[in-house]
Every structure is written in C-alpha cells, then in structure tokens.
Recover the amino acids of this structure.
C-alpha cells in the first residue's frame, strides 16, 4: 500500500511533518512505513520558461539555439537543444544553470540526479536545459500529456497554459511530493485505502481528520428502472450496489486526480477509469464499470459458475471455471468474474454512452480460492480477499458518482440499486479501564483512553462503559483489542519495562536435549563438525543407497505440495543428507572430513497417514580421510558410554544393510535392541554419491538410547588389593572373531576377571595358511584379598581349556 | 731414625699441588673421577702417604694425620667445585642446544565444531533458563489444529494462506511455526508456564540467499496471574541485552498476529554500527528481531485457561536470522551446505 503525502494532507490539512518524522511516528503507532521516496529529491532550479526564438545552430544540423524567457521581467537565457518538438511561443520546464534534474531522457531516473551547468555545445553557449518528463524523474505513462520523445510542452496542456513564466515548474507538476510505502497487516482492511491511513495519521499526530463530504447525486430518474439485481448466493455476495451513468463524455481526468493516481503508480487513462481507480484507492473498495448497452435483459444476476463454464476476461484470456466460482451475469450470459476481473464482452470502450457502476462485497475466502485456482491475482481481488465492509460499498459508490458529476464525465441516474439483505451493524465492546491497565502494566486514566478511542472514530458511552466500533474496524472484537488501541496511541515506548513478579519456576533443558548436548561434546572431541540438512529429500536417494524394492526406508511420508521432486519426501534416515554433505565436501577437495548431524527422521505408522508419525532423533556420523571402521566404532562406543549405556554392547556383523560393505558393517545390539549401526559405505553407493574415498557412517538412535540410558554413575571404590596380569597369545582359524574369544574369556573368567584387552593381531608367514593370532592382556583382581599366582593360574587353565573346544590354542 | 714430619709435609705439599694442577687442567667430567682415584683411591697417592704414617715419630703423628686429612678435604672440595662447574657448563650447553623456534605453529587436536545455529541457540537457551524457563519440544509434523486453529487461525483465514504451508494430508502438515508447542504446553494444564520451544519449521519458500524451506524458530511463552505487556517488554529487553550486549536498545512496534493481542514486533539497535546505520541494518540503525504479544484471550480459552484469571505473553524468534546477523553471514544457504571450511570457523 502506497500513499503520497499530498493525498494524506487532503484529509488531514493540518499535518505538518517531515518525511522521516511521518515514517517514525506512523510506524510506532502501528502503520508501518517501509520506506518513502521524495519526487523532488534531485530537482532544483526548475522553472516554467517560454521559448521566444528558435534559430539554426551555426555548426550543427541537428541542434537549434533557443532564446528562453525565464521570468516575468523578460530575462532570457540561450539554450541549445537537439529536441525536435520545440516551437516558438511554447512554455516548457527549464532547469537553470547550477540546477539539478532527476534523470536523463535516454537512461531514465538516476539515484543521484545530474547537475546542469552552462557550457558550449559545438561552439555555441548554452545556459541551462529544457526538460523532458524523464529528466524530471517520471515518464509519459504517468504524465500522458508529455511528449514521450521530446521536451515536455507545458502550454499544450490547458491546465498549465496559464502558468506564470519563472514560476516553480516542479510545483506546477505536483512533484514536490513524497510517496510512502506501508506494510499493512491483514487485519486492517480499512488501511488498504488512503482514507484509512489518513485517519490513522490524524490520530497519530493529533490533527483533525476531514474525510470527503459526499453530496447527493443523480437526476430525477430511478436507476431501478434501468436495472434489477438478483443475487443467487447472498452468502458469497452480502451486498451488491449498482448505479447508472448516461451521456458519458470520455476525457482525460483533471491533473489533481491524475497526479494522485500517478503518485501511487497508477497510470491515468480517462475520467471514468480514473474515477474507479481513484475511489478504490481512497475507500479500499474496488469498483467495476460495465457498458450498460451490453447487458441483456437489463438484469444483473450473481450466481456460481457451472463446472467447466468458459469465460473470457477483459485481458482477452479465456478461463475455465468450476462450480465454486462466483460470476456476475446479465439475463443471458456471464459478464464478470466476481471480485477478480470483468469480462471482455461488457467492458467500457471509447464508444460507451451508458454504463453501470458496481460496488459490491464478496466472501473473501471464496474470492481468494477462485483466484488461486485460476492463477489470477488482481488489485481488486487482493482487497476483496481481506473481507470488505459492506457499509463502505455504498459510500464508495456515491463518492464515485459525485466525482462523475464534478468532473462532468456524464449524467448520473438517480437512486441506487442495492441488494443488502442483512445489514452489518456496529459492534459494542465493554471497556474496563482497570483491566486494560492490568493487561498493559500501565496507569492510564479513563479520560485518556476515551480520547484515544475517539481519535479513531470509535463512539464511547462513558455511562455504560461501552465502545461502539464502526463496521470498517472489523478487527476490534473484544477488550484485548481495545487495549491494543490504547497502547498504540499511548505509545508502546511509554509502557513501563518490568519483569514478571509471579511465581518462581525452575528452568532447564529436557532430558533429551541434555543428552543431545552431551553427545555433541563427545563427537566434537573426535573432530566431527555439526552439519544440518533438510528434513525432506528426493525419493531418488533410495536408489542411490541401493535399497531393496521393499526396504522399510522406502516407506516415507510424501508432501502433498512439495517445492519439487527433490524435496518431496520426509526423510526416513539421516544417510542421504549425510552422504550428500560429504559429497559436497569431497567435490570441494576438503580433506579428512568428519561430520555429524542430530537429525529427526519421520517414520509413518501407516500410509496414507492418519495419525502423526514417529519422529526419532538420530545421531548420524560420517567421515572420509583419516581413520577406518574402528575409528568410527570407537566414537560410537564413547557416545554410548556417555549416554549411560555402560554395559557391553554386541556388534553383530550380519547387519545386511545394502548401503554398506557386506563384510564391514555391524548392528550394535544393546539389551536385545538395535541401538545403532555402522559400516564402511558400499563402493557402489560411494560412487553414487560421487565420493572418491572410503567413507564410514554410523547412526545412533537417540530415542532408543535414551529409553535405556542408565541411571546416575555410582562410585565403585578404588581397588585395595593388587591385580595379577597374564598375557596370552592365541592361534585360531581366521573365521573365529574376537567377539567369540572374548565371550569365552568372560564366561570362564568369572568374578575375578577385571578386564581384558586385545593388544596384538597377527596373520602371516609364521602361521599356517588360514590362521591368525590374537594376543590378550587379561587382568584378575579380588576385592577382598591379594590374589595368588595359583588363583590366576586356575582361571587361565579354565579359559584355555574352554578356548580349546573352539579349536583355539595357545600359540607356540 | 724415623722419618720426620717435615719430609711428610713436603710430600704432602707436592701431592696437593699436583692434585690441584691436575684438577685445574682437567677438561672433562669423567677425568675428575680418574683424578679422585689417583689421589684419594685405595691405591691413591694420599692413601699411600697415610699408610706411611707409621714411619713417623709417634709424637708427630697426630699433626701429620691432621695435615693429610686437611689435604684430602681440600682435594675433595676442589673436585666438588670443579664437578659443579662442569655440570653447570654441560647443562647450559644442553639447554643452548635445545633451543626451539617458538614461532613454529602450535599442535592442535582436530576438534569438531558446533553449527552456528546451535551455538546461537545455546546462548538463547542459557539466557532463558537463567530466568526460569523450561526448554521443551513438540512435533515437527503436526496437526492443523495445533499449528493454526488453536492459535486463532481458523480454516480459510488469510493468515493461514500467508504461511505457505506444506501439507501431508488435509489435517496433517509440516508445522510453520513453533507456536504450536505453546498449545501443547497449555493443554497440559500445569500453570504457571515459562517455556521456550526451539525447533524446525517449514515454509514453502524456494531456496535463496535469504530464504530456506526449512529453518528454525524459538518460541517463548509465559502464563501466570498478573502478567503484563510491561513484563513482556522487560523480559525481551533483558534477552536482547544479554544476547547482543548491554548497550543494546530495543524498540517495540505495534503489529498483528492472530494469536496475540496486543501484538508487537521488536527491533534491536544494530550492534554492528551501534545504531548509526550500516549495510546490515540497511541504514536504519535497527534490526527486526522478533514478533511478540500478549496471548490472545481466545487462545487461552481454547486451551482451557481462564483469561479472566490468567494472562500471558508469547514471542517467536527466527534462529537463523539471529545467527546470520551475529556472525555476519550473508547467504543462508551456507548454513545447510555443511562445507567444513565454513563450519570450522565457529
């Protein structure tokens, strides 16, 4: 929403402030000004001049030398120009020596403008410059009387013909003005019109608000003899008003109207079009004009379209409609798409003699959905979508007819055809000064509050403690809304600054968030950097991960309206994001990359979805470069330990994950549940993600881990008696795993076994082919006595004999 | 006749001079050992002299013994002094040879780094935890009711359209705001409430330098008896000062949100330029940081809280907005690329 300052001042005549003051004050009272533009920022020393004499340039065919009068006393300057549209006796805008213009004819507006100094053109002195509309910072769309290819000939426009020579041409052209751009919130429908903003400005600055006075218009005929209105869907069209104008005389609208429209970027066309646009801007009520002679049966019917009905809008496009869309029709055919765009078949042309003005209100949601389905978004639609005040429609209609009469654009037929079955009444809201103060934390008197209510035209009944809200403020419904009005005009900045005095509460992270924080610290210690990826991804990821057709990970939740296929399914695993991130790093030649992500995955309980899915937090770790499977395994072990999972986890090799190397992967089983998995990425998958180095991934399910996390650490006591250590070196077939050996050590070791540690692995020429050797350091200790060699020997014998059953023997 | 003590004295004197000279001339530490053996050892010169004591007249013996002992002490003392000199010299030589170039680079463990979003979030969490706020979470895939209806945004309300929502089904969507967590918290019925709810939210925006279809918000909610708009101002001012520095100024502007009334947006003075105006604040000196307001009475009612008895305030902060601003990151896409050259800077 834009307004010019001069337009606001038309309704707040006493307003006197700079652009910056206006911006700041309006923003603080709730009408946010996003920015402003001063049209005369780069215009200086520009006057109305008169060309007294034109001579040929002695040295140039394409230039002429003009003697230009620049004041009433007859002072003349010599100006050389290449313009071809100048004639002796014309009035033109002239920038004097040392002045400034906003742009150039060729390149249009420039940020800093151009300074004009006197100089010689092909040997002839030139002092100043005659200006085109582009040089004044605008264009011939906004100034239709300006020659698009030459100097702006002011004397061709009857309204400017009598301008005094030497007077301020910037003033004459209405360019001493500022346009403000506002961010209007969706609840303030009234502020999508200049009048609404002006009312706010008056209240903000404590000045008088002077809206237009609408006088009665029309001849002694009755419009109801011209037209009847039949609304079939009053729920979608609560009000429809129509008036008729005959004997139309199309002409340009007056400069004041053209300038106000141009200031907000609306191109002046002719008096009738300009009036409908002007009233739409002023009242925020879109209007439409139909050529009455195209309306058959002298009848307006508002009805829903038939499914598949075709209609050509006035932009020449044929549109296919469905049966939810509201149409404006005559007795025989459709003539407009309600609230969005009129039809080509009924539009105003240069031959129009009689027209029908429409000012209606439509259901905002219906208009919005229709526009969306048709892929249309017009200015009118944008306003209707917000849900307009039906009482405003007739005001706007009468304002338009008043302007028709004022501008002499035609003869207004008396009366109004008005369909308005359920009148919208003002709302009464009780107010309670104490409660408002209690909500705001202020101590504002009742008188002051009433003053604020009245500045925005709310009607106060002090005896009944009731505020009556005019229907244009449909955002005010209850006392909290009144509190905001008080706060706005009292000033948010004046409201005190306190801290809640209320009950003490204990703050803190949830257990889950505390664990996540602990996990971050552990993995960062191992050199992993935290990454973040999107929660949705492409289903193509499943193929890149070489997942089987029926893999559970393929059962993902699809977004109904995704941004595209690449973002269309909610991730069921953190692998795709992690591998893509590693790939990005690999492509950018980053070495030794280690990343982690705490990523939610979304597992549907059923498809299609009926209830919310299972959201599970996963810790995903990924790396390439230094390190191997066991580096990753060490990190996993440490994370689990930190999470309080202090018992022994089992690493099962037969995890069967298609994206991992078949011989280098493991599921981590803790108390019979798969709590994590890790592995070396399968070479095919690695290639699919364009990573050229061995890559390792681990995923820990934080949700399961948390459910099994141990309680607080309990002090175990420092051992009082010495330990006995034994080393053994074992020889076995290659297929035997360390896990199996260790299982035997634990079983046979019994209570006195304190710890064991694998310290050497050997495969090679000193062993039989197909055999390997593992060497363990085994520690025994008793809590209540010093162990003897005999104790240790007994247990070692037991271990060795148990191992022998598995064909594991002491290495000779 | 027994040999006189004078003869002994001469010998002793010679031995002593000889020893002194040898010690003085010695160049290595181990030489001192040899010298010690040759004079004081079992077969050493001084020991031999002592053995010849019996040849001295008995009345002279004590005197002679004393002289020998003095000579021994003298030699030992000199040897010790010399040894210390050698040791000192060797130590100095060793230290000199061990001199390092302290300008060579330090050795670091390749430690990992937290994401700038997380660092920023943890700062925010710490501030509010200190003020007695719980940190809670809610689902990212959410029911329409919690994301919209219970927040006073009924079906077909324009505010619902403005949010560019991703839908899964008609009633299930990707939450567009962490405000949904407010409702879950209020429904638990445990008052008073002081909570913040950080989390992921989703809006159908194409990826560019300032937009991402996935981003994060931190929602705040306080509900108790007697909570005022002044409390909201005070709390958020405190937050801004703790996060951006004690000199930070705040400005509250009226705004509109469906679930708060009165509503406001809070600007903070640009901490890059101190409010003078720079490219970060686009010359205005202020940066818009969050939306807030008093919880709408209808929202309280819908969650079963009596607005006549309880009031509250709520606020929502864009996490990325703060992180980008704080670290002067000019392209939001960097946050989701996970290039380690970026991540290692934090």
């Amino acid at each position: 929403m834009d307004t010019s300052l001069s337009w606001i001042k038309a309704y707040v005549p006493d307003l006197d402030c700079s652009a910056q003051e206006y911006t700041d004050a309006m923003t603080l009272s709730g009408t946010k000004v996003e920015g402003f533009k001063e049209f005369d920022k780069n215009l200086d020393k520009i006057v109305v001049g008169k060309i007294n004499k034109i001579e040929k340039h002695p040295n140039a065919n394409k230039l002429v030398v003009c003697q230009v009068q620049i004041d009433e006393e007859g002072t003349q300057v010599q100006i050389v120009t290449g313009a071809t549209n100048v004639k002796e006796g014309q009035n033109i805008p002239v920038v004097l020596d040392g002045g400034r213009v906003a742009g150039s004819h060729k390149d249009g507006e420039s940020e800093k403008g151009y300074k004009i100094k006197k100089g010689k053109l092909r040997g002839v002195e030139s002092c100043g410059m005659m200006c085109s509309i582009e040089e004044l910072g605008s264009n011939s769309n906004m100034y239709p009387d300006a020659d698009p290819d030459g100097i702006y000939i002011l004397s061709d426009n009857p309204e400017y013909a009598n301008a005094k020579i030497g007077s301020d041409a910037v003033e004459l052209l209405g360019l001493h003005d500022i346009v403000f751009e506002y961010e209007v919130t969706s609840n303030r429908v009234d502020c999508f019109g200049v009048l609404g903003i002006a009312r706010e400005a008056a209240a903000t600055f404590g000045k008088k608000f002077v809206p237009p006075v609408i006088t009665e218009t029309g001849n002694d005929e009755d419009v109801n003899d011209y037209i009847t209105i039949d609304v079939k869907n009053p729920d979608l069209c609560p009000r429809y008003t129509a008036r008729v104008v005959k004997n139309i005389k199309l002409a340009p609208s007056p400069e004041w109207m053209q300038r106000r429209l141009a200031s907000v970027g609306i191109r002046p066309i002719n008096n009738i079009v300009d009036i409908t646009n002007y009233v739409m801007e002023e009242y925020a009520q879109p209007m439409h004009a139909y050529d009455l002679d195209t309306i058959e049966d002298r009848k307006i019917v508002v009805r829903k379209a038939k499914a598949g009905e075709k209609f050509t809008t006035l932009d020449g496009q044929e549109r296919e409609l469905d049966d939810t869309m509201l149409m404006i029709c005559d007795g025989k055919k459709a003539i407009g798409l309600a609230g969005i765009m009129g039809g080509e078949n009924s539009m105003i042309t240069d031959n129009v003699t009689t027209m029908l003005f429409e000012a209606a209100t439509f259901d905002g949601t219906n208009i919005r959905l229709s526009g969306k389905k048709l892929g249309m978004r017009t200015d009118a639609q944008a306003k209707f979508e917000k849900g307009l005040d039906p009482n405003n429609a007739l005001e706007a209609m009468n304002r338009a007819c008043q302007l028709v009469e004022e501008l002499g654009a035609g003869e207004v037929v008396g009366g109004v055809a008005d369909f308005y079955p359920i009148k919208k009444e003002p709302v009464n809201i009780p107010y309670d000064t104490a409660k408002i103060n209690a909500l705001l934390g202020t101590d504002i008197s009742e008188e002051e509050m009433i003053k604020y209510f009245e500045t925005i035209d709310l009607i106060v009944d002090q005896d009944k403690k009731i505020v009556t809200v005019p229907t244009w403020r449909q955002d005010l419904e209850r006392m909290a809304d009144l509190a905001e009005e008080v706060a706005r005009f009292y000033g948010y900045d004046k409201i005190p600054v306190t801290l809640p005095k209320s009950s003490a509460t204990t703050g803190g992270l949830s257990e889950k968030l505390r664990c996540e924080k602990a996990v971050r610290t552990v993995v960062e210690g191992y050199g992993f950097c935290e990454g973040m990826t999107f929660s949705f991804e492409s289903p193509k990821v499943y193929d890149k991960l070489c997942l089987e057709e029926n893999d559970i990970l393929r059962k993902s939740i699809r977004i109904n309206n995704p941004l595209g296929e690449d973002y269309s399914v909610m991730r069921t695993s953190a692998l795709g994001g992690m591998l893509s991130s590693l790939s990005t790093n690999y492509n950018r030649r980053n070495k030794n990359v280690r990343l982690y992500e705490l990523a939610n995955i979304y597992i549907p309980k059923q498809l299609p979805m009926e209830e919310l899915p299972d959201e599970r937090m996963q810790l995903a770790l990924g790396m390439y470069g230094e390190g191997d499977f066991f580096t990753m395994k060490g990190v996993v072990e440490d994370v689990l330990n930190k999470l309080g999972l202090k018992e022994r986890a089992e690493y099962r090799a037969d995890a069967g994950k298609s994206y991992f190397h078949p011989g280098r992967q493991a599921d981590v089983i803790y108390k019979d549940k798969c709590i994590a998995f890790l592995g070396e990425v399968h070479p095919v998958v690695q290639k699919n993600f364009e990573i050229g180095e061995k890559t390792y991934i681990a995923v820990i399910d934080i949700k399961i881990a948390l459910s099994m996390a141990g309680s607080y650490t309990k002090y175990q006591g420092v051992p009082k008696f010495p330990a006995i250590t034994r080393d053994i070196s074992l020889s076995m077939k290659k297929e035997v795993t360390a896990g199996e050996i260790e299982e035997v050590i634990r079983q046979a070791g019994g209570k006195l076994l304190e710890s064991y540690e694998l310290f050497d692995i050997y495969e090679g020429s000193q062993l039989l082919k197909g055999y390997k050797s593992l060497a363990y350091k085994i520690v025994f200790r008793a809590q209540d006595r010093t162990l003897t060699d005999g104790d240790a020997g007994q247990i070692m014998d037991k271990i060795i004999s148990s191992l022998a059953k598995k064909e594991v023997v002491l290495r000779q | 006749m027994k040999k006189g003590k004078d003869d002994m004295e001469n010998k002793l004197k010679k031995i002593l001079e000889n020893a002194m000279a040898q010690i003085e001339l010695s160049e290595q530490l181990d030489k001192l050992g040899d010298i010690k053996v040759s004079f004081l050892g079992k077969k050493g010169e001084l020991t031999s002299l002592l053995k010849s004591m019996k040849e001295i007249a008995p009345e002279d013996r004590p005197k002679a013994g004393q002289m020998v002992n003095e000579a021994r002490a003298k030699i030992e003392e000199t040897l010790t002094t010399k040894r210390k000199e050698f040791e000192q010299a060797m130590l100095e030589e060793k230290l000199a040879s061990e001199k390092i170039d302290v300008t060579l680079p330090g050795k670091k463990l390749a430690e990992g780094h937290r994401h700038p979003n997380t660092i920023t979030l943890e700062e925010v969490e710490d501030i509010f935890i200190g003020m007695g706020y719980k940190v809670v979470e809610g689902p990212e895939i959410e029911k329409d009711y919690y994301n919209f209806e219970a927040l006073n945004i009924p079906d077909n309300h324009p505010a619902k359209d403005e949010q560019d929502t991703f839908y899964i089904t008609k009633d299930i969507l990707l939450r567009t705001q962490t405000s949904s967590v407010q409702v879950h918290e209020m429904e638990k019925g445990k008052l008073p409430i002081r909570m913040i709810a950080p989390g992921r939210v989703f809006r159908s925006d194409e990826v560019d330098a300032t937009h991402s279809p996935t981003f994060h918000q931190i929602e705040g909610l306080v509900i108790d008896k007697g909570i005022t708009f002044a409390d909201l101002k005070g709390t958020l001012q405190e937050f801004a000062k703790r996060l951006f520095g004690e000199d930070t100024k705040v400005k509250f502007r009226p705004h509109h949100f469906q679930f708060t009334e009165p509503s406001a947006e809070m600007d903070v003075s640009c901490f890059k330029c101190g409010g003078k105006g720079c490219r970060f604040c686009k010359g205005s000196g202020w940066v818009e940081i969050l939306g807030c307001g008093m919880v709408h009475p209808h929202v309280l009612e819908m969650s079963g809280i009596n607005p006549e008895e309880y009031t509250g305030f709520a606020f929502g902060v864009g996490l990325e907005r703060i992180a980008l601003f704080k670290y002067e990151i000019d392209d939001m896409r960097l946050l989701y690329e996970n290039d380690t050259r970026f991540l290692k800077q934090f």
